[in-house]
Design goal:
Elements (H helix, E strand, L loop, with lengths): L3 E9 L3 E6 H20 L7 H26 L3 H9 L25 E3 L4 E3 L17 H18 L4 H26 L20 H8 L15 H20 L8 H17 L9 E2 L3 E2 H31 L1
Antiparallel strand pairs: 1-2, 3-4, 5-6
Helix pairs in contact: 1-2, 1-5, 2-4, 4-5, 5-7, 5-8, 7-8, 8-9
């Protein structure tokens, strides 16, 4: 676990401590790779490169907005952001270096120590909800916002909505494979306690340790129990999705929208499957159904609908060509 990749050791007015969180670095890298590859492949589909580059810039903006909105609303962190401005001692520092402190310097990073309770907390920050580089992004929110704008943009400029969707689909999966590694380094999106040989142990003060401690599974000084590395599961499955979309379906594509439809189906199925082993706070309905599983179902249905809807059109086009 390494939530901060580079710490510059300086503070900036309003923005706070300057550092490069691991998750944000890998997320940024995924956007850069996706933008470059879609820019490079655009001419093959008869698309204007500059227009595709503009689209990528807008997609980044809307993806971040959507991911932040869903994180705040569905993941149950709205009160945390309010408390960070009103009373930061009500918010635990999930990445603190110690569980018991006597001074702020022991907590690590820019955390402060509550000397009355000897616990570490983030500093008071009324702009925390805007500081997306510090984490707190829900994929499905970003995906829905970015997709909606992307389809609107493609239709507005007559680029071909489903053609553009197919261009982006494999690189969305590839970007998710990278960003999930950032989740692993950050210690979020962790799994349930397990004894499988590939289980991982997060350090004291990590989100997994905090959850186990609050559930009275471990004591104040005890190490965290081993958990499923669900971040790695998702990273590998997103890499498999990318390989299927890019190397299999793309080469046998019969109609526009086919690659994007399979992205919806594969992403929805794989994400719902891995949710079985996740154990972090992310919104739960009826005590067992997570927010991601709720969103996955309509995405799978939409993917199947696109395949069924466009398949007859593809068949008629093939007959006409013959």
């Amino acid at each position: 676990m390494r939530p901060v990749l580079i710490d510059f050791g300086i503070d900036i007015p309003l923005l706070g401590h300057l550092d490069l969180p691991s998750y944000f670095v890998l997320l940024t890298l995924s956007f850069i790779i996706g933008a470059w590859m879609t820019y490079r492949e655009a001419p093959r589909l008869g698309l204007d490169r500059e227009r595709v580059l503009d689209l990528n810039i807008y997609i980044v903006i809307w993806a971040i907005i959507g991911a932040r909105v869903l994180h705040v609303i569905a993941d149950g962190h709205l009160h945390d952001y309010v408390n960070l401005c009103v009373d930061n001692f009500k918010v635990r520092a999930t990445e603190a270096k110690v569980a018991f402190c006597n001074a702020s310097s022991e907590c690590g990073y820019d955390y402060v120590c509550n000397l009355a309770a000897h616990t570490c907390h983030p500093p008071r920050d009324c702009f925390a909800v805007l500081e997306v580089w510090r984490g707190g992004l829900a994929f499905y929110g970003g995906f829905i916002f970015a997709t909606a704008f992307g389809l609107y943009f493609a239709r507005k400029y007559r680029m071909g909505m489903w053609k553009v969707a197919d261009l982006c689909a494999p690189w969305i999966a590839f970007g998710l494979a990278l960003s999930r590694l950032g989740c692993f380094l950050n210690g979020c999106c962790y799994g349930k306690v397990t004894q499988v040989p590939w289980a991982v142990r997060f350090p004291i003060g990590s989100p997994a340790w905090e959850a186990q401690h609050d559930a009275h599974l471990i004591g104040d000084r005890a190490p965290a129990l081993p958990v499923h590395p669900t971040e790695i599961y998702l990273s590998l499955l997103n890499l498999v999705t990318f390989a299927i979309l890019y190397f299999a379906i793309r080469r046998r594509k019969r109609f526009d929208g086919q690659i994007f439809a399979w992205l919806l189906i594969l992403k929805g199925v794989f994400r719902s499957f891995v949710e079985i082993w996740r154990d972090d706070e992310r919104g739960v309905l009826w005590g067992w159904l997570s927010t991601s599983q709720i969103i996955s179902l309509p995405l799978i249905v939409c993917g199947i609908y696109l395949l069924v809807r466009h398949r007859p059109e593809a068949g008629r086009a093939a007959q006409t060509a013959a």
